[in-house]
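Objective 1b. Sequence-to-structure analysis of Lipoprotein.
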Amino acid sequence: MPSSLALRKLFLYLCLLTLTQCSTCKNDPVPQDPAAQLPPATQTGAGTFGCLVNGQVYTPSENTGTSNFNATYDPTFQGGTLDLRAYNCSGDCASTKRTIILGGVGINKAGTYSLVSMGQQSASFFDRGRAFPCSEYDGSRGAYVNGVLIISRLSGGIISGTFNFKTAQPGCDTLRITQGRFDAKF
């Protein structure tokens, strides 16, 4: 027959075991992958745009009187000119508007295009919620940009594809724009 000390130890171990098991029994929601919140990568002219900015979901939102996502393509100017613009706001657009601009010249077919500072194709990120100069990462004006724009469809009045780029300004955080996708009519 076990001693009373042995029974107390057994009881204590059972209590501790129960407590440790209950700590894993919580109904904590499983963290959702931010990329799962992005629009699907389609090629139908769906009018969608999305990416991750330093791991946070970025999709167009709000409206300041102009479309929050716009794709302009002119196949006859400078060998094909593309301008993609998307903005979002959280509350007051006058002070929180964030805009991503992608595009350039020489875009005339589906394919891969390099996004670089001051290049034929570049990218920019503007954030009214930050203090200057960290509010303007303008690749067309010399901010560091390095990335890729992949056009998967450029036909029938539809342009779609994916993108990612890194941009930096001296004295400011580096921004990593990843898992970007767009699908628009032009």
